[in-house]
Amino acid sequence: MKGSNHTDSGVRYYNLGVVYQKRGESEKALRAYQRALEVGFSYANMYINIGVIYYQSGELNWAIQSYLKGIEIDPHNAAAYNNLGNPYSKQGRLNEAVKSYQKAISLSPDCDKAYYNLGRLYQQQEDLRGAIQAYHKAIQLNPNYTKAYYNLGVAYCQQGVVGETVPLNNNRDELLNDTQNSEMESGPSDAISYYNQGIAHYQQRAWEDAISAFQRALRIDPNHPDVKLKLESVYFDQGVAHYQQGEFKEGIRAFEKVNNNTDTHNYLKIGYSKQGQLDHKNGRFREAIQAFQHILNMEPSSDESITAYNYLRQSYIAQGNIYYQRGRFREAIRAFQHVLDIQPKDVDACNYLKEVYITQGGIYYREDKLDEALQLFQSAVELSLDDWKIHNSLGEVLKGQEKLNEAIHAFQRAIELNPEEAIAYNNLGEALKDQGKLNEAIHAFQRSVELSPKDARLYSNLGNVFKEQNNLEEAFKAYHFALTYAMQRQKEILQEKEEDRQILRSELDDARQMQLSLLPQSSPEIEGLQISGKSIPANEVGGDFLDYLVYDDTSKITVAVGDVSGKGLRGAMNAVMASAALRLVCKHEVNTSAAMSEVNASLCENMEQDMNVTMVLAEFNTSKKQMKLTNAGQHAYPLLIRDGRVEPVKAKGLALGMIPTITYKSSMVDLESGDLLLFMTDGITEPCDAEGIMYGESGKLDEMLSRIPTGIPIEKVVDTIINDVEDYTADEEQDDDITLVAVRVS
């Protein structure tokens, strides 16, 4: 290895660290690298890897020290200089960051990442010309560098230049004028007119209009030599644009309509990878699995295969854990076995699968389904020969089947593996007692009480054997200890429960007070609108929130409805954070799409990585009778009820807290007097009846809304809907927060 002090054990620790780091297990990776250092192994790339871990965890000074150590070992390592620039940049040490990226480029002129990072830095310093040159160089080196394309477009926009990320036609203005004149005279009537119209829309990046025009041209002249190529160009550039907005599903759909050349193939792999990662992060593991399986069917490179297999493995494991937590053991077993199909000795999958076998086996044992339990515990033993608990449980099942010799052998094996475990001796004693081997049973029970001297049950079992031997004096002593320790333990349990209740109550009270302080205390009074809303947590505290943002302009108000992933105290604290961020941003930003982008950037920086927030912002302008809607991942679309018809107001956007650079778009809706609008979380649409049918899919919500009288008070509308949801799920426990806001246009 270049730049290393080689030791066999050090190399092993280093390789182990690399594996852990690729899996995302940073703490384990760091421990492995530290062990490598302890045995005298010194390697530049290892210090770079350590620096990456520190940088990702926000420990910037440690990251800098690690990269500098890597450079000290290998002064010609371009990756070390490139990575060194990142913490410098984050600390505001911009000149040092620039020098680091420039040094990386001087060492490795084809380092596209260094050019990209240099471009970001120049852009931050408002040196747009330098930024554009750097991004162009990054794209020249890596034509698939999506982030570079995106930031290049942003830089051009900052310069006031629109459209520079798409190849421009020199006769663009003439072409547009010709098309418009043709439409004014008689409307497009031939393929060339539609083709020219498509070109004009294409140059304006109006993708759907361009597609429509080219498709019309093809219907008129299927053999037109250029239309098919241009149509594919539109789909290709539309796909890139969707990727830049984080809309990977839409981008994939666009690229799938392009002939399968190398560029398209690569972009599809990028899209499936990004979408799969988003689905994985959002808990949509089935969709994530499908995405990564697509990649593996597309002749991926070695690195792409490693990434896809890694996420595929993680998705199967996460899916298996969800099934396990829900008691769906068969599906959990199938998910974990898929991991073992990929990597037959995967440690995590083996351990999780073992836990499923143990848990389901325990359930069967308690239900007296001993044959089924035996099969599961035997499967668990095959996965983990040295786990004393499994042998102990196996012995309990065999004892229940009256296979005492096999049970005794299992208990003895458990004791061999863990000689300090009282329960195994106790179980051995019970099996020996059932065989009539009372002296051996006494020895086993006596050993169990030596190991656990305050366990009343063990003394009771010992007393029973003495009693069976008619040794009443020893039996009395054992029973006396059993009674004494049972009473003592009962007192301890009562005291522990009371302390736990007090701590939990205090934490919940604090969280509830914070949530209540951020909830609107009353409905706002806005001329031309009637507004009412409620938020009902499923537990003491919840992850839903609502807010009304009022402005100096009394003709405007914004309604906010949000839902945080996760429940209970953790969800509530993140709901408080999201609500507070929204209020803080809206003190200076009244544009809802810009406000949503700022809130997203704040949550990406401050919220835990495995959490996200969905939110809808609806800005009402009563003077214009319009609503501007911005949606960040909320699947329960707002509903518009007009003249008895119920229509969803569809607007899409990525959930908050996932990608910091997302730009959110707004949709404008014209309103009429008498319109009723509903904003809700999935606590309204997703509760299920006894047959598992969701309320939002049952048709009952639309049916009820179409019959709501126009004169009913707005507060009554909210109560009626919530009551209908509760009636629908009367026999099912509510496990999701309910939030609903109703707005009627006067």
Any overview of this molecule?
The chain is of the alpha+beta class. Among the domains are: 4-159, Tetratricopeptide repeat domain (Serine Threonine Protein Phosphatase 5, Tetratricopeptide repeat, Alpha Horseshoe); 527-745, Phosphatase 2c, domain 1 (4-Layer Sandwich), CATH 3.60.40. Helix content is 63%, strand content 9%. The strands form three sheets. Strands 3-12-11-8-9 form a five-stranded antiparallel β-sheet. The chain has a five-stranded antiparallel β-sheet with strand order 4-5-6-7-10, covered by helices on one side. It has a two-stranded antiparallel ribbon with strand order 1-2. Strand 8 and strand 9 form a beta hairpin. The longest helix is centred in the middle third of the chain and has 47 residues, at 472-518. The N and C termini lie far apart (76 Å). Residues 162-189 have low confidence and may be disordered.
